Every structure is written in C-alpha cells, then in structure tokens.
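Troubleshooting entry. The earlier prediction with guanosine-5'-triphosphate gave an output that would not parse, so I re-checked the input for stray whitespace and re-submitted. Clean input:
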Amino acid sequence: MAVRVHELAKEFGVESKVVLNTLKDMGEYVKSASSTVEAPVVRRLNEEHGEALRAQGAKKSGRKAPAQAEAAPAAAPTQAAAPAAPAAPAAPTPGPAAPAAPARTPGPVPGPRKAPEPAPVAKKAPAAPAAPAAPAAAATPAPEAPTRTPGPTPGPRPSAGGARPGNNPFSSTQGMQRNTPRPPAAREGGSGSGAAPTPGGMPRPNPAMMPRQSGLPGPSAGRGAPGRPGAPGRGGPGGAPGRGGPGGGGGGFAGRPGGGGAPGRPGGGGFSGPPRTGGPAGRNTRGGTQGAFGRAGGPVRRGRKSKRAKRQEFDQMQAPAIGGVRVRKGNGETVRLTRGSSLADFADKIGADSASLVEVLFHLGEIVTATQSANDETLLLLGEELNYNVEVISPEDEDRELLESFDIEFGEDEGAEEDLAPRPPVVTVMGHVDHGKTKLLDALRSSNVVDKEAGGITQTIGAYQVATDVDGTERRITLIDTPGHEAFTAMRARGAQATDIAILVVAADDGVMPQTVEALNHAKAAGVPIVVAVNKIDKPDADPTKVRGQLTEYGLVPEEYGGDTMFVDVSAKAGTGLDALLEAVILTADASLDLRANPHQNAEGLVIEAHLDRGRGPVATVLVHRGTLKVGDSIVAGPAFGRVRAMLDEYGNNIEEATPSRPALVLGLTAVPGAGDNFMVVADDRLARQIAEKREARERNALLAQRTGRRTLEDFMSSMEKGETDELLLILKGDGSGSVEALEDALAKIDVGDEVALRVIDRGVGAITETNVMLAAASNAVIIGFNVRPQGKATELADREGVEIKYYSIIYNAIEEIEASLKGLLKPEFEEAQLGTAEIRDIFRSSKIGNIAGCMVTSGTIRRNSKARLLRDGSVVADNLDFSSLRREKDDVSEVREGFECGLVLRGFNDIKVGDVIETFEMREKPRA
Ligand SMILES: Nc1nc2c(ncn2[C@@H]2O[C@H](COP(=O)(O)OP(=O)(O)OP(=O)(O)O)[C@@H](O)[C@H]2O)c(=O)[nH]1
C-alpha cells in the first residue's frame, strides 16, 4: 500500500521536502508531504536515491547532536535493524496467529520482503529493548528470519506487503474494497500473515498466492497505517509510550496492541482495525487518540488552573527557544490533525499557546495566523520543529472516521466466505494516442452486447457490460467507457480504484510509444494485471511480434514466451480477435484475481461519471462493488445524497436493481457527486443527508486550507519587491464534470507570466449555490458559471456580498475573457522612449537658480516635463534628472525643437560642463503581447 511522503522522509531522517523534490525529480506526481506514494515508486526511490537520502538524514541528525541525540539512530536504519534481526530467531513462541502464518506465506519471497519490518520498530523507538520486536518477528515464519537482511527499504516494503488487502490483491485496493472478511485468527492475532505479501514489489498475479488471498489480511492490511512505521502506538495521553510500543506496529503487522503493551493505538490502525478487531483495547486507545474527532487531546487537564499555569511556566523555562520563542517541545508524541487545521487547533492539542506557534512559524519563514487553516506542509513543518509526530489525517482516513462516527463501515464485504458470489471483472482500456482505444471500445460494445434483443444501441453512461462465452459459460465483463489512463489515474488519486484489469492497446504498426509505457506504469503501480491487445493487425505494416518483444523489456512477458501476460492480436476496425481478447481478460481474472462480492448487503461502490441533466437533474453512473443497489434505496455519494428514484442500464432501460460490477445510471441525487467518489446505501434519508453535509463541510475546510496556500517570507519579500503578486481566484461551476475539467485544464494553460497567477479554489457540477457565493466572498474569488445559473438566493447573496458571477456557454469565450482579465491584473510595463538631445554650449551661473545650461538642441525635442540624463564623453554622469526650468530667449516654454537654442536648469544638479550632452526621454506604457 501506499505510504506518504512525510513518512518516507521520516524514515530517511530528512525533511519532507527533500523526499518531495527527489520524487518530483523522478517524475512522480506528488504534491505535498501528505501525498501518497505507491510501493513500486518507493522501491525505485530506495534503489535510486535511498543511500543519498539516508546519508543526508544522518548528516542532519548529526548536526542536531546534543538536543536530539536520541533521534540519531532513527536516521540509520541499518543500525536500528541490527538489534531487531537477532530478536527474531530468539522469539520464544509465535503469536497466536503464527501457526497459520507459514501456511499463508509460502515461498521464500515473503521472507526477505518482510524482513525489514522489525526495523522500523527498532528505528522508531531506539530506546525500546529488542523484546517488543519479538512478537512481531515471531509472527513471520521463523525459518525465514535468519535470512533476513535489513533491506534498504525498511518502511515501504512492508507496506507493499500489507498493501494487498482482501482476498484480491489486484483488485480495487486502497483498503476500500476488501472483499473477504478476515478470518478470526487474523483478526485477533493480527500479526502473522498481515503482510499478505505480493511478490517482490511486482504486482503481477501469482496463482501461488490464491489460497492465501482468500483468507487474508489481518488488520495490518488496513489502509495507510501498515506502511507507516511511524504509525504504531499513536500516543494517547501517555504520548511517548505509544511509540514503538506494539512491536507489530512497525511493519504492518500491527494487529494488536498486545505486542508492546503500550497504550498506543494498535499499530496498524487498519481500515477496519479499530472497530472490528481492536476489541476493548482498540476502542479505548482510540478514545485516547488525540482528538480525532474534534475533542482536543493533549495533556489531561486537572487541578487548579494556577497550578497548571505554574507548571507550564516551569516547562517553558526549560523549553528551548526557537528564534527567541519559548515553546515546550514534544517527545515525539503523535498529534493527529485534520486537513486544514489551524495553529490554534494544533496549540490546543499540545497545550501550548497559539500565538507562540505563530511566532515559531514566523521564525521558520512562514506567515500563518492562529485561526487560519494551515496546509499540511505547514503543520508537518511545525511538528518537526517542535518534535511532535504530526499526522495529517488523510482524506480517506477522515472519511472513514466520519463514517465510523455514524457507525458505518465502508469497503468490506459483510458476512462469511459463503456469502460471496463471483462478480465480473471491471476493465479499463489504456494505450497510446491513436492506437485504437476508442475504436476497440466501440467494437466490443457493438459486437458483444449482453442483451442484443433488448438494447440495440448502447448509450454512453460511462461504462457498459459485454458478454463472452468461455468454456461454455457466459461470462460478463464491465468495461469503463473512458479510454486512457488519465481518468484511471485521476480516480486513483482520489483513493478510488474501479479497475480490476487493464487492457493495454498497442498498435501493431506503431509499437510501444511513450503513453504505452505511461499507461503500463500506471497499471503496474496500481497492481492491476494487464492484458495486451495488439491492435491494427489488419494493417500491412503490422508487426505484432515486435510489440511482444518491446513489451518484454518492460516486464510484460507474453505467455507464449514463458511469461504470464496474455497478448491478443486484434483488429478493432475489422472486428477480429475481440472474443479472444475478452476470453484473455476472463482467464487473467480467473488466474490472478479473486473477484467475489457479497450481493446481499447494502450496496457500496464508486461513482464513475456524473453530470447535471437538464431534464433529470443530477445523474450519476455508479459501479456497484458489493451489495445490490435498488430503486428506493437511500444513498449517499460523496457530498451528494438522495434516494434512488430510477436506475437505467447502458441501453437506457429502466432497471430495478444493480448487482456487483454492474454500472447503472442513478437518478434522484440532490447534487452532482464527483467521479471517483464512493457511494453507499444507508438506512434512511436523514442519515444520508447528515453524512453528505459533514462531507461537504469537511471539503470546504480543506479547500480553505488549500487556498491559504503556503506563503513563505521569501515569497512575501520577493512579491513586495516586485510590487506584490496578484492572483485571480476562481470558482468553477459547470453542467458536467467533463466541461468543468476541460475548463479548468484550459485555464491552467493560460500563462501571462509570473506576476499574475490564476487559482481555481473550488469547482463543481450543478447550479451556483449560496455556499459557492459564500466561499467566493470569503476569498475574493470570481465565480464562473458554465451553462449553469444560480440557485435559490445565490444571486441575491452575490449582490449583497459583491461577488462577481460570470456566465458562459462557450469554453473559448470563458478562456478569452479570463485571460484578458488576468492581463488586466498585470501591472503596466513601461519602456523608455528617447525624445531628443541637446549639447551644452555655455554655462551661466546664478546663485539663485543654480547653473543654467545654454544648449543647442541637436536632435528631437527637449520637453520641459520629460526625464533627462547627462552624458559626458559618452558616459552617463547623472540619470533620471528633470528640469526646473526651460526657456527660449526669455520665455518659459514647454518644449524646444531641434536646431534651436535654449536655456535650461537641471533640478538639483549643478555639475555641468560645456560639451556635456543632455538626453531626454519619457517612460511609455508598453502594450502587452
Ligand atoms: N486499420 C486499422 N485502423 C484502426 C484500428 N483501430 C483503430 N484504427 C484507427 O486508428 C485511428 C485511431 O483510433 P482511435 O480509436 O480514435 O484511437 P484512440 O487510441 O482512441 O485515440 P485517442 O482517443 O486520440 O487517444 C482511427 O482512425 C481508427 O479508425 C484497426 O484495428 N485497424
């Protein structure tokens, strides 16, 4: 599973931005310290830059020697791992789940991969004896232990291991879509097999894994946490003891706090860990977790206030001063903050004064007020400085906690093994431009429709199902209708993954091209198996063999060459090979994935497309992951809710219910959700509304935090020098997610230079609401309505608040106007225009008005109001002068032309000589290109 940048940074012992920059240099798309990084990328990072980063980290911690000496080992995983490794063989008796463990982790692969797990534990808590590591180690197959070498990737690797939740390591991941309930052993013990290893970072299917997959993951496989070595033992009030406590926590084992006995949260804190598995321990510690839901954590406040004040005074006496500010430093306690928390929230959690945090940040070069929403990086920076382990709760975790507060669990199949039924694979078509993705989707749609009788022409709802005959059985496949990996990646970036299998289209006449590789990498990063469609084989210059050879270099080895990737030659144009392609998809799914879901529960799934339909209101195409969605269900989808009024299939037919992997167009939502939002059926409308409202509020906060951005002192200074940077803030509303995205993309491409920036602070589908207007008013933004109008009192409010709303129905017009207004924000640019020159022929000295130059105008005109410079022997003696007097004969004049004599006085400048040249010029505004 993915780890976050700051977690990686912690492991290397460097600042997040160092890792961030390294990743960016590697071409990875990472935005902030809380961006997630997939296991393969982590591996690459380790291979390519691991040593350098660690060296840097070691240097850094060395520098801080006296104060943070204890932190030094953290930067040296090798040292840290050393004590842990021996602990493994010494492990007395395996943990409760251990007996099962070897069976679940067959093959030598898991051994070395899991090896680093103890490392983070030891790393994070260097002071902790080896003992706590033992249970964790014990949980891994003992024979493997001695062979362990502390790999270079202590943290992330285990996470990759833990990243395959559910019985289906390749399917929709992110912990949201685990399909099989975990066996009790795993739940209770949590340790053993938690790692659910995938083969050495290669997310390829491996049939050997099958039996294990179906019985897997312990809580460790939960999302997020397993990969975070820092996650174990989230400090409750006890703070420090939590760290490094549950030994298992380190590597993604994590299940139970039993290991270390510390009051930390069970290390993994997996998706479902706390509610289901933690038992009382889990619950209690969760309660102790600092303010996950608003309640401030921090020290327990008891006793009289004056006493506390005294205590604080005492603490502060010992507190190191940061730039003259005294703030009590932490001991590495974990502080959990939601996105967009303010410094006041932070201060509240650590029992400090928010003003001093503002000051600390100021000394670190950031200007943030106490109540302003701070962005993730700022919170992490502050945490690092004050020695707190700040965890900015990820959007997914936040949502999970939000749902938990309603006692709802998302992403799990209910019931037991026997409740699961097979479901069709969901497939995305990817490939290079013009290699035939669209054509292939069209061909598959028209030739393999499920119900030829009923349908006829399919409608574009974002996905459709086809059927194919494999070994005499009709098998269905759900195809996502948006070709290309962009949509796939965009969804994944939101923590959603709809795809089980990717069809990689490669034109046989063109071969592997840049986007082929890109698509391939995206699929690999997501752990999605690939079936290659070698397209356009009807073309005379088609060379399917070459394509096979080329892809082999990228690790896709055709089955016929002994590999495990199926290659199928097709012609989307001629319609050949389509059945074979579908069969290959089914065979690949059968071999590497366990696609089952419980159809008898409340439906859950993903929104894959949504827009506002003029006649029908908000419509959303959803893909059911588990359960059965029925007309009449109360549903919440992202920040939208409602009741399913009607459902349509891809033929436009009304359907009463949609089973797993079935795409359906849902009518009846109150708002338009975003593509990639999850949806679920809840008990009643009221609950749906409450969840939706909470999500919307949360989203707004996060947006505000984003908006406040990170403005450093340096930025501040440089913009001051430049005369302040200007920014045009926009809120985009449109009639469909496609148009809003298109508009935003186009706007992002407008470039009028560095001085003026354009930032879209919110976007959405549907009418312009009062909320939009409020946000615009609060942030001085302009609202762009694309084919939409205001709703309710939005116009009134906009008038009152002075918010500008602009309406467009043609993207081009919107872009043109916005570009023009951006240019309007530009400060005028001036250039110098030469006006004339005059030569000093004589000098008249006057005590009253200074030296008067008697001149002959040698070119152009000398104007009274123009600027002047004095040249002597070709060099500038004085610049930017102006005239206090210009006369012709005895008259004051405003200008004198070439060939005439004049007398002039330079204001405040008397050092003139005969023969000097006076050059005059004026500054003219330059038209913008
Ligand atoms: N001869 C031949 N031409 C094909 C075949 N498949 C697609 N084409 C042609 O290739 C061109 C590109 O096909 P598209 O389906 O638009 O390709 P795409 O990958 O969807 O392209 P983008 O959407 O631009 O990324 C079209 O002119 C198709 O007619 C095929 O099997 N044989």
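This one parsed fine. Confidence is low (pLDDT under 50) at residues 63-305, 452-456, 707-717.
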